[in-house]
Amino acid sequence: MRLLKVATCNLNQWAMDFDCNMKNIKESISKAKEAGAVIRLGPELEVTGYGCEDHFLELDTLTHAWECLKDILLGDWTDGILCSIGMPVIKGSERYNCQVLCMNRKILMIRPKMWLANDGNYRELRWFTPWKGKYQLEEFQLPSEISEALSQKSAPFGYGYIQFLDTAVAAEVCEELFTPMPPHAELALNGVEVFMNASGSHHQLRKLNLRLHSFIGATHIRGGVYMYSNHQGCDGARLYYDGCACVVINSDVVAQGSQFSLKDVEVVMAQVDLDAVASLRGSVSSFQEQASSKTKIQYHSPEEEIAFGPGCWLWDYLRRSGASGFLLPLSGGADSSSVAAIVGCMCQLVVKEIVNGDEQVKADAIRIGQYTDGQYPTDSKEFAKRIFYTVYMGSENSSEATRSRAKLLADEIGAWHLDVSIDGVVSALLTLFEKLTGKRPRYQVDGGSNIENLGLQNIQARIRMVLAFMLASLLPWVHSKPGFYLVLGSSNVDEGLRGYLTKYDCSSADINPIGSISKQDLRAFLRWAAVHLGYPSLAEVEAAPPTAELEPIRSNYSQLDEVDMGMTYEELSVYGRLRKIFRCGPVSMFKNLCYRWGARLTPSEVAEKVKHFFKYYSINRHKMTVLTPSYHAESYSPEDNRFDLRQFLYNARWPYQFRKIDELVKNLDGDKIAFEESDDVGKVAATSDVGGGMGVVAAGSGDPKAGI
């Protein structure tokens, strides 16, 4: 048997913090060597951190990367172990995203990335050049300081693999796995048995299974050992890298790391039999040889992902920002209650890791919670009381139900809770306005116009934002604490898509852990958290109809979100997926929804819904330009900063597109149901003569839980 022990890892790197990153890299190598591993794989761009963005354009960043690599190679870190280390490299005048393969204090090879990630949240082509010399290796002259220190003038640079006496090893960098002709397919034919994939892959709800299926598929027919390494944590921006370092042999996952964790370093070990790879390649029937060594693949439910992903992201942000805690405007509604529950989950995770012996988490918790005399957190509620403030900012339009729900949830979590009325501040502003203009606005239920009604709602919303930041900056002073509190936002992805929020209201905060999560997923999370996080009041929160409570409550009127928006949250999820994931404009969306909803709505009704959505989406798009930085979790996020790049000044009448929809409605006899009810979707699509390209539907587009 040709036995080989390999190590891959999850590292919590921080963009541009070279000391932090080097500490984690060295610790991972040490753990790998202690366990007897002869190969150690680290994540993509681990030396600098993946999220350096335009810092990659600075020569200092690349110089520091070489300095760090020199520090590793001058020590005994690589003695007897092949280390794949991710860092940027300049060759000539071009920057490359590279894996540097080192062993015994020498650089064996530099492997530049050939296919760069450049969609969604990724912009690698802005900073790097893809390597085009696919079938060649060039000699790369090492920087003079490195060359002199290592007594090595050059190293092979390009697409290739390392041939050892008993096996061959090659790198495949992140995005390359997902290309139509991935490198591992060709390398396997050249006898490569071990593939090392260094990645920088972020969390997105329901995405992990797609990633793992790709690793499994890579070795299902060709055989091989597939190692995967990833970042884990918040490295300075909106993304949470979700780890899951693993080792796959002949399509069986034999070792898997955590997806969500507060650990800075997690090393995943596996001992593999290379003869099993050769056996599979020689005879598919021998595939069963590896079955006995496989491990059960670990997946989290979407509700667990919402708890643990944003919870870990918040902890990284808190411990690295220098803040003393969080402040949350807690309304007693579903969104702010979800954020409160996530902070509560974070506190539970911190205490759990301290119990498990994580000294780094313990040190950070002692510093942030200001423990003295050898004390440290042992109870999540006690820890929350030190670092989490909630405030209910009620008005004459608030109900006793939301006030009591906010207080009860804060008590369950352990937060320091405040209850304040903003009526005095609202009244003062209205008096000032009346003095300036001679007029005093009224709510619509009291005879006022729509303009007056919106103005009065916006005043309340913006006062809450101002008060939240005031409390966050001054409460530490009140309680004789240093630092400041981070204000947490609580608008969800559907409200952002529709623009159902006031610009510069409580959606404006320092960070938002749920800004890319749908209302439907949040409600499922609340039901789960009521039981699994031990906050039973969340069940009552979830059952209550969503309301902004910005208008007066009357016997015949109560403000409701879905009535205000003119659409349901479920419909918003469908619109969002069609717009972003399936890239539908107004006309394409109308065609898809005529098919999807044709059994219960007429084309005219579908047309009105589509027009209504695009009208308010385009009117409110400007709000996305100032949206609070949010944890990225959903594939149809409208976040304007880097993920969903579109204009913010539209002709909201969409004259050409809406005219085309009207023509289609006319051709479809728009006041009649387009399709009869049928369980046989294929039959309906095949027999219905709907014209205009109708009858083709994007798979899963009508299911809010579909998509990746």
Automatic annotation (TrEMBL):
GO terms for biological process: NAD+ biosynthetic process. PROSITE patterns: CN_HYDROLASE. Pfam families: CN_hydrolase, NAD_synthase. Signal peptide: none annotated. SUPFAM superfamilies: Adenine nucleotide alpha hydrolases-like, Carbon-nitrogen hydrolase. The keyword RNA-binding does not apply. It catalyses: deamido-NAD(+) + L-glutamine + ATP + H2O = L-glutamate + AMP + diphosphate + NAD(+) + H(+). Keywords: ATP-binding, Ligase, NAD, Nucleotide-binding. The keyword Ligase applies. One of its GO terms (molecular function) is glutaminase activity. Residues 4-274 form the CN hydrolase domain. Pathway: Cofactor biosynthesis; NAD(+) biosynthesis; NAD(+) from deamido-NAD(+) (L-Gln route): step 1/1. GO terms for cellular component: cytoplasm. Its EC number is 6.3.5.1. In the C-terminal section; belongs to the NAD synthetase family. This is Glutamine-dependent NAD(+) synthetase. It comes from Punica granatum.
